[in-house]
Amino acid sequence: MTDQAQKLRELLKKKKDIREAKTIAILSGKGGVGKSNFALNFAIGLQQKGKRVLLFDLDFGMGNIDVLMGVTPKKTIIQMFQESLEIADIIEKGPNSLSYVAAGSGLTNIFHFNPHYFDYFAEQLQSISMQYDYILFDLGAGMQDQHLKFAFAANECFVLTNTEPTSITDAYAVMKHLYYEQSSIPVYLIVNRAEPEDGELTIKKFKAVVEQYLKQSFIPLGVLPDDHALVKAVKDQIPFLLHNKRSAISLQLAQLIDNYLGEQSKERMAIRHSFVTKLKMLFKRKVD
Fold this sequence. Notes:
By secondary structure, the chain is α/β, with parallel strands linked by helices. The protein has 13 helices and 8 strands. The protein starts with a helix and ends with a helix.
């Protein structure tokens, strides 16, 4: 009886410790700022820290996560819908055994084209929500409605920009939409492909504008350098963290990830709303 009681206590403790994956939406106001490359290497970096990570490429029609990894996926999200597959059938392994899901080509506005696809997708997402620590969504650039809904439902949002005025303006527009819909959502800003001083100045100016006009405050996650090692890694189709772990951009990303996980430890006990539940509400609101 004592052994059985002990086993029961251990089982209950394990169930208590199991939590849904933290969902992170990664987006940018415009293309060309290195969003997908960041998403891929950030996912690998989290995995190297012992986290269970799943990376979704949700840029339907324009997804390139598989290209950056130099792999050819056997199945994609589009095929999951067309062939009625389970999500486990389309989760593939990339470099460093990273779990990822490729977007596929075809319909760019797939959930609005067929609402039943969304219901099925939500059901499949729910089935794996406790198998990972982090689920990352690499969303298409810009402010497409279906991409924004994923961002609104996520536990956190990462907004990428560079130091170009057009990129900064578009990133501000994205942040404005995020705060308008979900005023309490944690938003992180990453300045990509920038000299340290320029990047920090961009963050400082961006922060002042957001605080003045949006009455909000984002979390500056860091600046990543414009490193030739990145160009070489893209050409060789190998994530830069694996291509050259001692390069400037790899070292800086590793520091950025440490900073991020440090922030996470501060709010470890915070209650998170179910991502799938919020996503269903957002898509249902559109239909109603």
